Amino acid sequence: MSEWPTEAVNYIQAIADTKLVLSHRYAEWMLGGPSLEDDIGGASAAQDEVGHVRQLFRLLEQQGRDPQWLEGNRDPEEFCNAEPLDETPDTWAEYVATVSVVDRAAWYMLDSITSEDFRGLVDKIGEDEFFHLEYQDARLETLAEENPVELQQALEAVLPQALTFVGPKGYDADSDPVVQAGFSDRSAAELRSALLAHYETLLAGTGVSLDGVDTEGPTVDEWGSRRRRVSTNAISQSVVDSLVGVKNKQFAAE
Predict the structure, then answer these.
(1) What is the DSSP letter of 4?
(2) Is the distance from CB of 188 to CB of 169 less than 8 angstroms?
């Protein structure tokens, strides 16, 4: 395995942490969907994401990251997940908007990786993600028809934070550090454009529009490259405890 530059290690850490917390959000809503099909879909996606995390953590360990730290033996502020996952969505529309946009953003970032260390792995993850993203798009289309106002509000909250996670608009092919390191073939600017274009196409002709979405921020100077956000917000300690399995350890047989 090659030695990755710091920018690349942080890039994969953010994708892995996002998938880890994403699996938790899927699991939280596993019995809260409007149909049995939705519940089964969420459970399946949660299981897939955990599998992806295991593979990404294995690669990060080979880059010197401590395995216990990766598994959750760290403070909430040390997690580098996409910001829309910090809080549990309150409604079905918020949940679908959150997991759909974040899952797609993380996939676009992963799919852009050119490192030989990911040969085969990205293809395998892509097979799982194809079904996740198809399912999520179908649910977004249904919500756009049945509950356009709430979906509009949810997307206006989620998309700017997801774009921030992808990276600043100012990071083009000539300035994006991950591209410049030869680790990725698509800049943050390109990935942001692809994400927006997908949802503009998906929602065209519905009562939901992206016109009100802030697509400009953040600037390169205000953006934090390690956690890929501007704010200091984080997941709660209770989520960390759940990821680590604190209650499971408390009730484990000696």
Answers:
(1) P
(2) yes
How far is Cα 122 from Cα 111, in angstroms, rounded to an integer? 6
Say how many C-beta atoms besides its own lie within 10 A of residue 104's C-beta: 20
pTM reported for the whole predicted model: 0.94
Domain 6-250 falls in which CATH fold?
Ferritin (1.20.1260)
pLDDT at position 2? 87
Looking at residue 31, what is its pLDDT? Answer: 61
Q: How far apart are CA 109 and CA 107, in angstroms?
A: 5
Quick one: average pLDDT of 162-185? Answer: 97
- Rounded Cα–Cα distance for residues 168 and 93 (Å): 27
pLDDT single digits (tens) 20-44: 999 999 988 776 666 656 766 677 8
In the chain, how long is the greatest CA-to-CA distance?
Answer: 60
* Residues 6 or more apart in contact with residue 38 via CB below 8 angstroms: 139
Cβ contacts of 37 within 8 Å, gap of 6 or more: none
Taking the domains of the chain in order of start, what are their residue ranges? 6-250
- Predicted pLDDT of residue 29: 78
Contacts by residues 149-152 (CB-CB < 8 Å, ≥ 24 positions apart): 149/207, 150/91, 150/93, 150/94, 151/93, 151/96, 151/97, 151/208, 152/207, 152/208, 152/209, 152/212
Q: Which tens digit of pLDDT belongs to each residue from 61-104?
A: 999 999 999 999 999 999 999 999 999 999 999 999 999 999 99
Q: Which token pair is 59?
A: 């690669």
CA 222/CA 26 separation, integer angstroms: 31
For residue 97, give both structure tokens: 């908007």
Q: How far is CA 15 from CA 87, 146, 151, 165, 230, in A?
A: 18, 32, 25, 9, 17
